[in-house]
Fold Pyridoxine/pyridoxamine 5'-phosphate oxidase.
Amino acid sequence: MDISDMRREFESQGLDRDALDDNPVKQFQSWFGDAREAGILEPNAMSLATTGDSGMPDIRTVLLKYFDESGFVFYTNYGSRKARELTENPKAALLFPWIALNRQVRIQGRVEKVSKSESLRYFASRPRGSQIGAWVSEQSRAITSRGLLEQKVAEMKRRFSEGEIPLPDFWGGYRVVPERVEFWQGRPSRLHDRFEYVKQDSGWTIDRLQP
């Protein structure tokens, strides 16, 4: 199936260095606000790329749950494939594809687990069904049928029929600590605007990259 003729022009006002904040986290916050105001569906959805000992890249979509100067946080099962790969190689890349705004943000950095108190605080805020799901799923493991999964859900509902559901010890958060951040703004004729922040001991350097 040849789809090489699928294309569209990226019409936008462009991106100048003077319009960028010197801090990439503050610049991300500005663009994230634009994405929310534009009504983009789940603007916090991000592609997470990891590579374990095998050297085979892996990627999936997860949800950003918190960000600040210390990094970008998501949550998962600590027995999942992504978690195993992050144990083998604690580095990752993130991609926010805000195509409707002709924008994307790329982030690379080292990865660390968040504290148990942070995981507990977020877990407590989740809907009860999602809390049950965290207990039920051995994420990334094979299962013979969905019926077995639903049976495990019923068992957990009986187990936690009263009171608060505790945080599983195999579930929690990771923080991607940014070392390189790129802001991409689509422009006509594929002459896009790209600015890359790189972390240095003295702060962040900012360079315009060729499209």
Observations:
- The longest helix spans residues 24-37.
